[in-house]
Amino acid sequence: MTHLQAITLAILQGATELFPVSSLGHAVVAPALFGWHVDQHAPAFLPFLVMLHVGTATALLAYFSRDWWALIVGILGAGSSHQVSESRRVFALIVLATLPAVVIGFVLEHPLRRLFGNPAVAALFLIVNGGLLLAAERLRGRRANQSLRALSSLTARDALVIGFWQCLAFIPGISRSGATMVGGLMRGITHEGAAHFSFLIATPVIFGAAVLEVPKLLHAGVSHGMWATSVLGAVVAGVTAFASTAFLMRYFRGHEAWALNPFAYYCLAAGAGSLLLLLG
User: Fold this and answer.
1) What residues have CB less than 8 Å from 98, skipping those under 6 apart?
2) 162 and 197 in contact (C-beta within 8 Å)?
3) How far is CA 126 from the centre of its chain?
4) Which of 78, 153, 205, 232 is most buried, by CB atoms within 10 Å?
5) Distance CA 44, CA 185 (A)
6) What is the tens place of the pLDDT at every residue in 130-170?
């Protein structure tokens, strides 16, 4: 893998992990479209992929550092009784929303892994992802007369539902952030609130996925050159992810009525175009 390829994949990871357009789908489709001979199942590729995810998760942790600090302080019992109670409630919601991905991911890991390297399947599900985002906005439009809920009103049931929506992202081409946002919108949460919660639960999910691969890295016998490329990718992915998060939080705050539509149209066009090129 060249440095240009590594930087390109890192930018894709850092942006598409947060934008509701599927990082996994782009990671599978992009090398095939560019004609790159990158074996994503090779042991040497694993540290690169893990470091990209570490970089992305670190960026999320940095951007929402105040939220995580407040949670830690509250869990430890510091602060007022209200702060402690609220911090523990939010932490419990994050755990609840994460559980479905942990359980379902463990059960379906091997059946779904066969789809990961198939660019045509990823392109097809990019189209499905676009349709899902459009459908969510249409349904939200029909409920325009209902008052929207703030993130602070999230219940245990809401968190669990969002967690199950997140599991759709095991399919390459379906966006994790998009699916969790759709779950939040379906529970009546604002776009900004749904995005905020989506990014909070992304941090343990991404870090957890990376940590699970560490034992494999110890036996992979990766060269020093590949580790250097992986560190470069992590830095690029982290910077891109931080900038993407900052942009998206402002964007969702100001476009409540139709925020997901542009991403939906992009997924429809990118998926259809990729499918035509791959099968043509």
Assistant:
1) 163, 201, 204, 205, 208
2) yes
3) 14
4) 205
5) 40
6) 999 999 988 877 665 566 777 778 899 999 999 999 988 88
Which amino acid is residue 259, in one-letter code?
A
Q: Which domain holds residue 146?
A: 3-34+43-279
CA 16 to chain centre: 7
Q: What is the pTM of this model?
A: 0.86
- For residue 264, the SS3 value is helix
Distance between CA atoms of residues 70 and 78, nearest Å:
9
Distance from C-alpha of 9 to C-alpha of 155, rounded to nearest angstrom: 37
Residue type present at position 111: P
Q: Which residue stretches of the chain have pLDDT < 70?
A: 39-44, 108-117, 142-147, 214-222
Q: Residues with Cβ < 8 Å from 32, sequence gap 6 or more?
A: 119, 278
Nearest C-alpha neighbor of 187 from the set 139, 227, 130: 139
Q: Count structural domains, the chain.
A: 1
CB-based burial label for 88 (10 Å; 0-12, 13-18, 19+):
middle
